[in-house]
Amino acid sequence: xxxxxxxxxxxxxxxxxxxxIAHTGLVAGSIxxxxxxxxxxxxxxxxxxxxxxxxxxxxxxxxxxxxxTQEAVKIAAGSLGDxxxxxxxxxxxxxxxLIRDWRAQALRGASQAVMPAGCLIDDEFITSxxxxxxxxxxxxxxxxxVIYADGLELSVPAMTKATAVAA
Length: 167
Hints:
- The structure is a single chain.
- This protein has about 170 residues and is mainly beta.
- It is about 10% helix and about 40% strand.
- The strands form 5 sheets. Strands 1-10-6-7 form a 4-stranded antiparallel sheet, with no helix packed on it. It has a two-stranded antiparallel ribbon with strand order 2-3. A two-stranded antiparallel sheet has the order 4-5.
- The model is unreliable at about 1-20 and about 160-165 (pLDDT under 50).
């Protein structure tokens, strides 16, 4: 079985990265792994300890909830691995996702890569939902981390000074 992306007219071309979006946030309702178990992102508060791939438990420094209209992507259950994600997941197209399957090799020539969810669209298992109004929750950390949300590994940047002041 060959990947659905083979033979597409845009094969070999990467969509442009949206550098104006530093961190989009997680859709309200996303379930994060924490020291206290699985918790919806909107119930987190500064001081909660979040499980990360690259540093174990780290304290959450800030949380911000915003309402936006952005391009959204749906990732079907099991499309990034046997149980990744655990169910259908909606993400902002600019949310950075750690991929560790054939896509990383095909798109970046590496065993793993961090890419915007929108770059993973194959129109079969990972699809564009178009512009959607969403409540996003932004998490602030002292350093960049990969967190576990809905069975996915998502990259979250370090807090900027502006975010730290707002928190």
